[in-house]
Amino acid sequence: MSFDEVVDRSGSDSSRWGGRGDVLALTIGDSDFQLPPAVEAAIRARMTGILGYDTVPDRLTAAISERLNRLYRWQVDPDWFCYLPGVIQGLNFSCRALTQDHESVVTEVPVYYPFLDAPLNAGRKRHDLPAIRGTNGWQFDFDGFEKLAADANCRLLMLCHPHNPLGRILDRGSLERIAEICTRHDVLICSDEIHADILFDGDVHVPMGMIAPERTVMLTSPSKAFAMSGLGGAFAIIPNIEIREKFESWALGLVPNISVLTLAAMQAAYSECEEWLSTEVAYLKDNRDYLFSRFSKCSKLKVHLPEATYFLWLDFRETGWNDPYQKILDHGVELTEGAKFNGPGYLRLNFASPRSVLVQAADRIERALTA
Fold first, then answer.
1. Is the pTM of this model over 0.85?
2. How far, in Å, CA of 289 to CA of 362, rounded?
């Protein structure tokens, strides 16, 4: 397969592309790449016969465990797994299960908007921790977090790692510092690591569950990295049995079984698609570098080079525009409004598309900036 192939999704029911006409929609977090051949083959094979209720096969848990050990030297017990339809459910269950009515939740901002919603859905107070913008990227505000963690009512840190939309990776030292603060103030951690497979420039991901196993719910899924967002399928890894039982108790009666087709897709993704993933990440890196090179030359537009994810976080605050989203849309490109992430004045661009689409989008954005 070729990542350069353009598939017209504008006439489909796609949440991203449906009904957009000639507008280039570089918005929500699904990719424009076709399924890895091994995943498609696994789904087709499973569609024959009976589509009944399947339990999660031991071989899937074993494949994930082997992969975690190979990538991170992290030995994961099969009992630590909790399977879910998606990571967003895990964010919401964590807020409900791990906090009480009088306790609060901390999340770094700007951030993927379900992080903003989950504490409020649970009836909890949310404390926003602004990320620090440095000359070479975005940094976690340790001192600010220390102050929030010292609040007797602060019980849970929701961590986006790698970070969406900032594209930032936290190294081992940063994670250890966060874990030390959490341990000292008895704060639990919910770490969304769904973008951990999309890393650039030789960077290495360190799972938070390795650093603070006794207080971490780690959430992840193959959906982003393996071009299967619409299939869903995710899991939590929770080493602490007390936390795991609380988490699972909230899922009772609310979480449906993962479909047989999704289970087949997850198995193939984690067992047969490492070469495909490497090719995809290389393609995404080239997309990132191309757009960064072009946008860095636009004096009114500020952008940092993301270390991970397939998103650019574009700063339009120096343009003087009242509504950057509409201004760009008027020139035929739809991006995601930064205000949804608690980042007004910014727009998020999804670059998981064929290069030719991104070339057209960059042309249109540049025309908007010079109009």
1. yes
2. 13
